[in-house]
Amino acid sequence: MNTIFLILDILIDIIMVVLPLFLIVAYTTYSERKIIGFMQSRLGPTRVGPFGILQPIADVIKLLTKEVIIPSNASKGLFLTAPIIMLVPSLLVWSVIPLSEYFVIANINAGLLFILALTSLSVYGVILAGWASNSKYAFLGSMRSAAQIIAYEIAMGFALVGVLMAAGSLNLQEIILSQRGGIFNWYWLPLFPLFVIYLIAGVAETNRAPFDVSEGESEIVAGFHVEYSGVAFAMFFLAEYMNLILISILVSIMFFGGWLSPFEGTFFESYSQWIPGFVWLSIKTLSFIFIFLWLRATLPRYRYDQIMRLGWKIFLPITIIWIFLEGIMIYYKVEPWFVI
Amino acid sequence: MDTGNVMLLEYLPIFIFLVFALIFATIMLGIGFTFGPHNPDVEKNSPYECGFEAFEDSRMKFDIRYYLVAILFIIFDLEIAFLFPWAIVIHDIGIYGLISMAIFLFILIIGFIYEWKKGALEWD
Fold it and tell me: Is residue A318 less than 8 Å (CB to CB) from chain B?
């Protein structure tokens, strides 16, 4: 009996995370079109509902009721497995993300390792989709995309190591708690190069502009998911936007103190005590999502050799040097970040 | 309950989430097949190549450099796997740990410089 209640309790937790997440994904696509529209002196969607606010819902209904085309040359089994392999890890990662002081679905010790492992899985979905489609564009797109993802994963992994060194724990709640004490105690300051590299590598990992060569519309159409339609395409789309939100929330957790209040240790601390940690985390995350959208509106696409050069020849050396410097800073216990 | 069970219990929500996610993804695909129309057509089901008929097999030869990148990735990813446990205990192991990791990284960097000079990172 107790076990059933326990499982029900966990299921309710999961739904409490997943439903709002889908809503946020839907409205990220809406705000993406609106924000980029305004940045380019257009209006964006205006027809469905007031200010086009029901546009994402119309999109969802449309995607669900369209035909799923399976190309005649494709390997059927793999073709249908690929979107599942894309979607499942990007959902599962959310089980270890602390959304407030009290709420996290699974508060495991190896949280960050779990995230690193799961985010690495998405490259299998990309490769499978490109291979199973048996189409030239899909194949080229998946090769480009996979090489780009693994190149930037190295830089990302090294940036994570920097955070681990500072926090001395893999548990995300403890990483947040070790940043206590106001804006200047958050890790963005001592780990500034790693923060910038993590953010940019995150853009590259999610294949978004300006690193969107894998689906550069003018070159290889939609890249690895060119043969996908209807709901199968929607699953890739969902996974991509969930990853975008995930990168934003991870940057806020690891470098910007997660749910910690920015007024800690200042005059405003007692006045802002009533604001729950979840609100601070949301504000930080939404700002990073905005930066992602902004980048897409502002920057032209990188050339592929430039992308690979940036990942291997610039990011990798910088992260290694900074990890070494950080080791020295930890040895000398530089205040206030590296005293435990 | 012994400690092993407590640790496993921490991972129970993840297991349930995994089952939930798998079922959810399968149902989502299922919805597409139930609600969507299904009118197969030779032209519609042929691989997309800007309106042309597909010529030759699309599983063609591809650039060796993708393969090189994958090999380099394995080396550096392993490196990260070694750095993770070291990073967690760095506060306790002092100067000895720092110097050992510096030597380890130094060996890796020699390899990195070699592959850089050999042109494994060039894309033209």
Answer: no
Say whether both A221 and A140 belong to one domain. yes
Two structure tokens written together for A275: 């604001």
Q: Which residues on chain B are in Cβ contact (under 8 Å) with A21?
A: none
Inspect the interface and report whether the beta carbons of B32 and A66 lie closer than 8 Å.
yes
Residue of chain A whose alpha carbon sits nearest to that of B82? A161
Minimal CA–CA distance to A32: which of A300, A237, A301, A234?
A237
Q: Which domain holds residue A54?
A: 1-64
C-alpha–C-alpha distance, residues A59 and A68, integer Å: 15
Contacts B95 to A, Cβ<8 Å: 331
Q: For residue A244, which of A280, A210, A212, A203 has the smallest C-alpha distance?
A: A203
Hey, are the CB atoms on A309 and B121 less than 8 Å from each other?
A: yes
Last residue of a domain, one of A23, A49, A64: A64
Please tell me the least confidently modeled range out of A52-56, A164-168, B63-67: B63-67
Please tell me which residue of chain A has the smallest CA distance to B57: A134
| Whole-number average pLDDT of chain B | 81
Residue A31 near residue A293, CB atoms below 8 Å? yes
Contact (CB<8Å) B123/A308: yes
Domain-located, residue A340: no
Q: What is the pLDDT of residues A7-17, one digit of tens each?
A: 888 888 889 88
Partner-chain residue, chosen from A109, A113, A309, that has the shortest CB–CB distance to B84: A113
Q: What's the CATH number for B3-118?
A: 1.20.58.1610
- The per-residue pLDDT for range B6-45, each reduced to its tens digit, is 777 788 888 889 999 999 999 988 888 888 787 777 767 7
With contact defined as beta carbons under 8 Å apart, do A213 and A149 qualify?
no
Q: Where are the domains of chain B?
A: 3-118
Q: Quick check: helix, strand or coil at residue B40? A: coil
B70 by Cβ neighbours in 10 Å (0-12 / 13-18 / 19+) ranks as middle
Distance from CA of A169 to the nearest CA of B (A): 6
Q: Is A71 on the interface with B (CB under 8 A)?
A: yes
Q: What is the ipTM of this complex?
A: 0.86
- Beta carbons of A121 and A281 less than 8 angstroms apart: no
Average pLDDT for chain A: 85
A328 close to B (CB below 8 A)? yes
DSSP secondary-structure letter at B57?
Answer: -
Tokens at residue B60, please? Answer: 């063609």
CA distance B2 to chain A (A): 17
Helices and strands, number each (H, E), in chain B: 2, 0
The verdict on A27 and A127 lying in the same domain is: no
